[in-house]
Amino acid sequence: MRYVLGVIALLMLLFVLVQYNDPDGPLWMVYYGVAAIWAGLAAFRPRIFAGQVARALLLASVIAAIGLTIFYWPPAEHWWDMDVWWESEESREGMGMMIVTLVLAVTAAAVFSGRRRLAVGLR
Fold first, then answer.
1. How far is residue 119 CA from its own chain's centroid?
2. Cα(53)–Cα(96) distance, rounded to whole angstroms?
3. Which of 6, 12, 35, 74 is deepest in the core (most CB within 10 A)?
4. Do the Cβ atoms of 22 and 28 come closer than 8 Å?
5. Which of 74, 66, 69, 63 is nearest to 97 (CA)?
6. Alpha helices (H) along the chain
7. Cα–chain-centroid distance for residue 60?
8. Would you say 122 and 101 are in contact if contact means Cβ atoms under 8 Å apart?
9. How far apart are CA 41 and CA 48, in angstroms?
10. pTM here?
11. Sign, CA torsion 12/16/19/25
12. From CA 112, how far away is CA 105, in angstroms rounded?
């Protein structure tokens, strides 16, 4: 799972990098960056989750991401169709937040299900 989380962290960093020309890029850099940091910590510094504070902050991040997913939910019908999201910034933002939420949920599931193994750095 550590390798999967490492790949996910790198992908989220790529998401951060491609936001450079977006008008609201800095905001999305934060969203994607938070997901990248949590996945990277779970992959490369798992001992940090031995403490209560890191687990609580991760859980708070997941809850915030769920709230932001509701906020950014695409208003367009058939927002998943390429013809719609190619033209609709709102649909792309909604899908982006869904990706952030998924990454944080996978990271939290890995941390909370294998907390002891991750905490001692075992594979």
1. 21
2. 27
3. 35
4. yes
5. 69
6. 2-17, 25-44, 52-72, 82-87, 89-113, 115-120
7. 13
8. no
9. 7
10. 0.84
11. positive
12. 10
Whole-angstrom distance, CA of residue 25 vs CA of residue 62: 21
Secondary structure letter of residue 122 according to DSSP: -
In angstroms, the CA 30 to CA 57 distance is: 15
Residue reference for tokens 């938070």? 34
Q: What does each of the 123 residues of the chain score in pLDDT, given as a tens digit?
A: 889 999 999 999 999 999 888 888 899 999 999 999 999 999 999 999 988 999 999 999 999 999 999 998 877 676 666 665 556 677 778 888 999 999 999 999 999 986 555 444 544
User: Would you call 47 helix, strand, or coil by DSSP?
Assistant: helix
Longest dimension (CA), the chain: 47
- Residue 53, token pair as written in the block: 């504070």
Nearest to 29, CA basis, from 18, 40, 39, 38: 18
